[in-house]
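Sequence in, structure out. First:
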Amino acid sequence: MAESLRGKLLIAAPNLFDYFRRSVVLVVEHTEQGAFGVVLNRRAGSEVAELVPDLGPLVERGAPLWLGGPVGPDSVVVLGEFEHAGRSAGVVTEKIGVVDPDGDTEVLRARVFIGHAGWGAGQLDEELERDSWIVGDLDPDDVFAEGDLWAEVVSRRGGDYALLATMPEDPTRN
């Protein structure tokens, strides 16, 4: 592991055709033992209040629930924006952290995810060597984006990446 990718985005490369196709993952933790992240751009199809009503006060009424990844589908991860994330349960970046629903009172906005993405020791590094992921910088608004986040973060990289952002979701229908 060269350096920790905590707080970085993993943007699915166009050649990634599995669960993570066109996914944008925020790396929450990355150590020698492995990595933990949350897919930012997959809606679960239900509302927070329906499946985890205790977390309703953290989000706006009618807020959708998001699929954080295929690991631990019964687990819940709440990401939030703070004035200073050092006051959160788990710092990801200067302003983004993992929310402790029972203790974090200074959350500016939050998003609730079920499940997460996980990698064992060295697994993420291998995927990066195979060019399965493009590493990008996080804008705090990415955590709360509603549109085509994959296209947005790819185009933000500029150059040849901007062309990739215009690629249709299903290239066979081009």
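Second:
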Amino acid sequence: MEAHSNKARGIVVTMLWLVLAGIVLTLITISPANKKLSVFLIVASFSSLMFILLWFGNAVACDLMDRWIDWIKEPLKRLVVGILVMVAYTGLASYGLVLLYKTAFGLRVGDTTTFQYSTIVVTLIITMFMHGRSFLKSWKSAEIEAEKAKKESVRANYESFKNQVNPHFLFNSLNVLTDLVYEDQDKAAKFIKQLSEVYRHVLDSRNMEVATLEEELRYLNAYLFLQQIRFGDKLKIENELKPSRGNIPPLALQMLVENAIKHNVVSEEQPLVIRLYAENGNLVVANNLQKKVLPTDRPGGVGLENIKSRYRFLTDRPVSVESDNERFIVKLPILLEG
């Protein structure tokens, strides 16, 4: 309510200033022979209406063009189209107003050359002001969005780091390692090596915005080894990914695998099948859907939102999520190097 009140107040104040400008222009341009009160009032009202039409009409036109053509992405096109639209509008508005006053009062504004030139100058000033204001608004908005995206990315990276060093994963890994030490010492040694590889990558990537596919796949293989040792035949991994050129946000693939394990039943009767493959410039993580009920203190969807947030900062290509009664599929765009 207060915002609408302030906007209305701003419009009224602007109109008062425009009326004042019309009166001043009339005093400057009207010829001494025509300084009768009746003529003065007609010309002053004409000037004021002209200013109001030019100001608010050009403001509306400018706002509409801002929606269609982005100042930041297409500055030259926006400037040229803006000037053409404003010149066309100004010409039509001026002609219509002159015709109205000529019909109503017999006023011949065209006879006053000084007035014509003054109108042109005022039009140029209004046009430059509107374009300048529009550009500054767009630039400021883009700057705010960039800063917002940067903060969102920092928060997402921090959340990602917190998720990966959570005690649950370490606790489960140590439990598995305890059993392995007695059952298979060679496998236990490999388990320790892969566990250290996982945490090394987590620590190395905590300040990185993107990582190469080669690095991420090496880390992912270590993580998958740990999970398959933990779950055995309950978890089936079909990893078809090969090292290739490109980047992705660090830990993104691992988080999707972790999400699949977290949100689905993993048992001998209902083994979880996770398939990883590349398709049309995307890395795809798909799993059979067999949802389990999560405790209320472990809300779902955080990891996926984290990944989406980081992608919004890095690219216009969105993360795709597809789901039906049988499968859950997430597609991560591969980011081009450089």
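Remark: The two ends are 48 Å apart (CA to CA).
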